[in-house]
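Sanity check

After download, print the first record. It should look like this:
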Amino acid sequence: MLIFLLIVLLAGLGGFGYWAYNAGYLKSLPFPKFGNDNSTKTSSNAVPPQFTAGPSVDGAALDGFVVRWTTNVPATSQVEYGLKGSFTSKTDVETDNTTGKPLYPILHAVVIIGLTQDTDYQYRVTSVSLDGGTATSDVQYVKTASNAGL
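Expected structure tokens:
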């Protein structure tokens, strides 16, 4: 019975240690990683992508808009947006439907929907290159269309 209790105690401590390490509390200890590590690694030599075109909006609709931009290297696509004066929402990074892994295009297009018509919004885009370099655009402004006169 004593051996059983000792095994249970050690298993519990091992699980706690693994959790604490993954949570960042014990990063200096060499615990092994299990499963997929999908986190983005940033190299000290990471070069941020450059925006070669955009970001810009292709004419706003009643309830949203499409943001387009181009980067000089393959990079992720993400847009942060909100009412003029604040950022309250962020799109998910575009991923492959089959694998769930991030896509790294050069030509980017992100659709924002579910907005209020005839309203001023602001947005900015973020792209992360394969080596972890991050670029964020300046704040841009757009106004959704109005249905007045339709």
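If your output differs, re-run the checksum step. Summary of this record's structure: Residues 26-42 have pLDDT under 50 and may be disordered.
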